[in-house]
Give the backbone structure.
Amino acid sequence: MHGVEIAFAGRSNVGKSSLVNALTRHSALARVSNTPGRTQELLFFSANTTLTLVDMPGYGYAAAPKHKVKAWSALIAAYLQGRANLARVYVLVDARHGLKSSDQPALDALGEAAVSHQIVLTKADAVGPGAIEDCLASIHTALAKRPAAFPEILVTSARSGAGISELRAAIARLLSERSH
Ligand code: GDP
């Protein structure tokens, strides 16, 4: 049996749990292991593949002391090490706020580990189309300096459902690329 892992990272409160819930809402196969304060894993089984969705701990509390940032980076570096089955890390960014300085250590860690990663905007329902375009433009500029980051940005809202089926389809594509 082949296994494929997809992880979700992002600042605390970015809407990560809501997005993962929206993605898995219609799946009868979800098995949730919810241990507070730890990485949460959702496992999906099909005939010849296991899909694991990994909900990484949120980072970037407004007043996070330096040692906390270091601890997160160390945890992530350890997690990313030798993760051959990890097909992609989705880095969630709140559409209202765009990329923040606290996203930089996470993007650095992913780039250094050469893990395929992609930005997903969350809470798209909370801003107008013009603001979304501005947000996308500034993230595209920032990503130009990050070759390990996938250039396409997905726009989602767990609340309105926008972009959820597209993200689900993207995950299904990663799964089929990896499972044969
Ligand atoms: P997490 O800390 O990243 O897991 O974030 P949560 O999923 O717990 O959401 C944090 C806050 O953002 C909550 O108050 C949610 O109601 C809100 N939120 C989550 N998703 C959306 C969304 O798609 N649109 C809007 N407007 N708010 C959202």
